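Work package 3, deliverable 3.1, input record:
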Amino acid sequence: MKKTATILALAFVVAAIGVPAPTQGPQPARRMIYSLEPGEEILWAESFLCIDMDGEHVTLVVAKGKEGPFFVVRDGQKKGPFTKLDEAMKAAEEGRCDKPLRERESAMYEPAAGALDMDSIVGANDAGGQVIRFNGKVYGPYAMILNLKITADKSRLYYVAAENDKTWFACSDGRKVQIGGMPEDFKFSPDGRNALIKTSGVLSLAEMQKLVAAQDPEKTAAAMKDADKKFLYAIDGRRFGPFGDNLSEFWFPKNVNIFYYEAGGRVYRDGVEIPVPKGFGAGAFFPSEDGKKYALLSYESLIFSDGVKFPFPLKLVTRVRNGETVFKWLALENKKDFVVYQRAL
Amino acid sequence: MSIKERFKARAILPLTTALWLAAAGPGPAVGRPLDYASVFGAKYTAAEFFLKTNAWISGALALDPDEVSLALAVVFPEILRFSALEDFIQVRALKVLYVQYGKKYANFSVGRFQMKPMFAEQIERDSNRLLTAEEQAAAGSPRFPLADTVETRRDRVLRLDEFKWQVRYLGLFMRIMNRKHAQTAFTDMRERLRFYATAYNAGYTNSEKTIRRLMPLRSYHTGPFETETKYCYADVALFFFDRF
């Protein structure tokens, strides 16, 4: 009886603190970097949490009581006591990590939009059309270049161009897809080889103009209704949709060259629905390269697709090496223990 | 407001306020109206542009036009500040700590209107206590669950992450202030704005006396850390109100 009660109690504790039952997944590396002493409190506004896969440079400014004394803890070494906070801050700033403090923890691939010298890329031809000049080649002419982006390695350029009654989504490597409707945004993969564009409706601007000129109210009304429908076109020519307002996001995850989209609360990979718990946005969804495994990040936890859950990750970084995604994160446990975890997906 | 009225409004500043002004530390000269559009430059322009291009906020507040003007002015200094602090240091970590451990970690600001979880908590409590279900519905908000749990704190942070929810919290703030200070005498709309803006910035649960005492305080700055030169939050709000 006593044994049963102990097991039940243990099970309750495990469930309550979210420590997972043994699973087939890899066990995490866990390392405590500092434990607050009794009476110590972290001054969060003055502290710097800086982690990357090669190390962590956590600088904590701690106080014993509101009036101090103050201490600085960096990489396990403690300096102080300082009687004034200014002195502690000075010590904290000496040699602290110089990585940018600005942070965005998103699982989406979002390359920085560098300023393009449009005058050198887009030009006019003798017939009054527009051409694109990129890496020694000329693309076009088109009636109008609607949008263009260059991949991070600058090897490819994707563009959207209108030509008479056709609209094209094209890549400088020669792939070219005719799209219908009005083009919205497009995104390309981290390696620059894959891309996806979102459009509204099926008729091109020229077709819409013809329809309006024909003064057929029924057809015009039907076309207007169609204009609300959303489609996705991949650069390989595949089309997905129609979607209504429920196409909430389309994206390439960091380090993954397959596109994902979320429609009606469901997540699709390369057009095929995959099982992901509802309520996690694109920025919190970290799939493996082959899409078979994933991790979900929330304010409450980091959950892996093998069921393992780690509570309250403060700060997280990821890295893909040899096809394996590794996560590293900081947590504050028991209100006093600063812990770094690392685990492969 | 006429020049005479403005003079009168200045003339009745209580002695304590004048003393406070004198003790408020470095800042622009007292009594000389500052051109905050010049002081904050591009940040001011960006904040103003944000409000001009997000006209839906006025509709979403579901308040009388005068009240909308007042509400936008109340949060304008925060919008101005936000552009400088957007996504800055470890806000995510602070959100996690608040969800994990609660109130003790609730003192950090989120989003365009720089709302703190402790402000949202108080608004939710007062909204349930002071407003009818119809008034809450008009502000686009439900009756709030008030239990202090990981789930309620998580939901609160998720609400603060959404700008449309910050607008709802602002609408509730205006309604709560109107209810709490229905009997408070204001010389005019501009004085009411300075009072509301100070309450928003320094804590609306403070007494009328405290809020009035804090009205001229120069504690506002737009950098991530305290700077030598500070400004009066209520004055920045009023400057925007007069110009917008």
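Residues 112 and 336 of chain A are 37 Å apart (CA to CA).
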